[in-house]
Design goal:
There is one protein chain. Helix content is 67%, strand content 0%. The protein is built from 29 helices and no strands. Helix 3 packs parallel to helix 7. It is rod-shaped, with a radius of gyration of 44 Å.
């Protein structure tokens, strides 16, 4: 009995294998179906349903791989095996790759369509047995429902595992050329554009147009455009059937992004309609939070957008922001050079980054530009500092938290610490705003204005820090709190980051405020000693601002230096008056000798000034007499103080008489 049963199973399996081979290789002959059904039922009754399914799919896979897939990829072999130059020649051919792609798709889709019919034959046989077994209350493995999904998975798997590396590039070329062709049709003329667009994408009210328009010509454009969209849609549909849905969508989205002027939303609406994906939804059912939901007028000629179109709109909207962002990031170095005149471009970049969140791209790209174009031996320290100040101001408007400024500014600060003249240039920028820049610098680089603004902010901050806020304000502050970006340095808190200002960053380059103050004192001494008119109003204003920022005790010596010039001006006036009115002065004597009016002395408190280098200098006797009289009179007025002349620091004005 067991031997007979075994022989029956082997016989049924042999007949099934023969019939399967006849069906799969039957070149369109499906007459095997009625003969296959009882054999399948017998094998399923013996518990071999899964074996039947797997063997049949294996036969289909072998046939599909050896015939359809092999021939499909061979048609693209000339392009795949070509060099870069030869590929360019392929791309400029008018009919490439459309002809090759259309023929290849037609052949493989015909083969796949026949195999799907074969799958349905087996599925019908399996389903018939399963229904009988269910009616007889027999236990049976359900394989019919999983047969077609497994086949579709097999098709896509075979194609993707044999995919040439150049095939995505071929798809990109195809969709770009097709969309260029569509753009040429739609933009044939300004008038034609409006009519063709409305008719192609849902509006065909020709009577609304001017009677002078050539209706026949417009209908031709419309017909050709519709045909083109259908051809593109057929290619997309065929690739979807082959399991290339994602790759195809990436290709035509890349083409749309590359040629955004092709009214992409309207084209996508037509394409999705052709593919059966454009189903109108009520705005309350889509569940998509998009600006489109409140702006249905953004879809001329489309009406209520489908959910698929909403997704595409958000995708293209993101791309538009990303494209503008990349353009601004690519020119960010030049934009910051022209800041604040370039503020609109900075505002564009800020809005784009808020939408895309690609701040790291800005940081990486800008640091690369800085190292290549600014942080080089050929750039002067003045130029680097001016660019740094503009960078601080520009990036603070983009990112008020200062997180990305920390990342961008660190390479600049590290480089400036290695420059010997950095401190001097910073102090010069603090005192005259130009930093020694021969081109006059940028209005946004003036640290005097920043010093004044920072002093006001610091006073307000100090006031706020010591002011007790009520519970209501504390609650409002807690509601508006936002965490730091993920790129933030965890070692620096939000509060300290908010207090970072331009002057604080400059001090961080130098190392400490004492070094900056000492350098300022040296430069102030040189500046004051070169003044012959004692005009120090601007220096007094700068000192007052520095006192607010660095503290009065730090600037005490500088304040005494300025007071010395104020006292010098007053002392000079008193001494000249006393010498002119001194007893024993003979009328006309001043004309014979050098007048005391020509002498002005800068009298300094040497203990508070930086060390001043002195050299021996012999002066004419008349000048020496003038200095002696001045010193003697000073001693009389300021007893017991005496003057010690540093003649090498003096200045002489010489007049030539012709």
């Amino acid at each position: 009995m067991q031997l007979d049963d075994s022989d029956g199973a082997l016989g049924s399996w042999a007949r099934f294998c023969a019939l399967s081979g006849e069906l799969v290789g039957g070149a369109g002959d499906l007459s095997v179906g009625p003969r296959l059904a009882p054999v399948v039922a017998d094998l399923c009754a013996r518990g071999l349903a899964t074996l039947v399914r797997d063997y049949f799919l294996h036969n289909l896979e072998e046939a599909f791989r050896n015939n359809a897939v092999k021939m499909f990829w061979q048609k693209f072999h000339p392009y795949s095996s070509s060099s870069a130059v030869e590929r360019i020649k392929f791309c400029v051919q008018e009919s490439w790759p459309e002809d090759v792609l259309s023929a290849a798709l037609e052949d493989i889709c015909l083969e796949k369509s026949y195999q799907e019919k074969c799958v349905l034959v087996l599925a019908h046989a399996l389903q018939s047995y399963e229904e009988k077994a269910q009616n007889r209350k027999l236990k049976a493995v359900e394989c019919s429902s999983s047969l077609m999904p497994r086949y579709q998975l097999m098709v896509s798997s075979v194609l993707l595992t044999t995919l040439p590396l150049s095939f995505p590039e071929i798809l990109n070329v195809y969709f770009k050329k097709k969309l260029e062709e569509l753009n040429t049709m739609v933009d044939a003329s300004d008038e034609n554009d409006q009519l063709a667009s409305h008719a192609l994408f849902g509006r065909s009210n020709v009577s609304a147009w001017d009677s002078k328009m050539d209706i026949d010509s417009q209908e031709t454009v419309i017909s050709e455009s519709c045909t083109l969209v259908k051809n593109i849609g057929k290619v997309v549909r065929d690739f979807r059937c082959l399991g290339f849905t994602s790759m195809t969508e990436d290709s035509y989205s890349s083409a749309i992004i590359w040629l955004l002027k092709v009214v992409p939303l309207q084209f996508l609406h037509a394409l999705l309609t052709y593919l059966g994906d454009s189903v109108d939804y009520d705005s309350g059912l889509s569940g998509l939070k998009s600006p489109l939901a409140s702006r249905p007028s953004s879809f001329p000629g489309i009406g209520v957008p489908s959910e698929a179109l909403l997704r595409w709109h958000m995708r293209l909207e993101y791309f538009a922001y990303e494209t503008l962002q990349d353009l601004r990031i690519g020119k960010l170095f030049e934009i910051i050079v022209d800041y604040p005149e370039s503020s609109p471009a900075i505002e564009d970049l800020k809005q784009c980054l808020e939408y895309t969140g690609q701040h790291s791209k800005l940081v990486d790209s800008f640091i690369s530009s800085l190292r290549y174009r600014l942080l080089t031996a050929g750039a002067s320290t003045n130029d680097i500092l001016h660019q740094y100040v503009s960078t601080i101001k520009a990036l603070r408007s983009i990112d008020p938290t200062g997180v990305f400024l920390e990342a961008v500014g660190e390479p600049i600060r590290d480089y400036l610490r290695g420059r010997k003249d950095t401190i001097k240039c910073i102090v010069t920028m603090l005192t005259d705003g130009s930093g020694g820049n021969t081109s006059g610098g940028n209005a946004g680089d003036n640290l005097l204005e920043e010093l004044n603004r920072d002093a006001e902010n610091q006073e307000n901050a100090d006031y706020d820090d010591h002011t007790n806020i009520d519970e209501k304000q504390a609650w409002l502050n807690s509601e508006s709190w936002e965490p730091d970006p993920v790129e933030a340095d965890p070692l620096k808190g939000s509060r300290s980051r908010r207090k970072i200002d331009i002057l604080g960053l400059m001090v961080s380059i130098i190392g400490s405020k004492d070094q900056l103050v000492n350098e300022y004192r040296v430069m102030l001494a040189e500046k004051l000693l070169s003044k012959s008119d004692f005009d120090i109003d601007s220096d007094i204003r700068t000192l007052e601002l520095l006192k607010i920022h660095f503290g009065e005790s730090s600037m005490q010596k500088c304040e005494i230096m300025l007071n010395d010039l104020i006292d010098s001006k007053r002392t000079n006036s008193n001494i000249k008056t006393s010498l002119l009115n001194a007893p024993g002065t003979v009328a006309g004597q001043e004309e014979a000798e050098i007048s005391h009016d020509v002498l002005d002395a800068t009298i300094i408190s040497s203990n508070f000034w930086p060390p001043i280098q002195t050299e021996d200098l012999a002066v004419p006797a008349s000048v020496d007499k003038l200095l002696s009289d001045f010193a003697q009179r000073f001693h009389q007025i300021k007893t017991p103080r005496k003057l010690l002349w540093k003649k090498n620091l003096g200045m002489v004005k010489v007049w030539y008489q012709i």
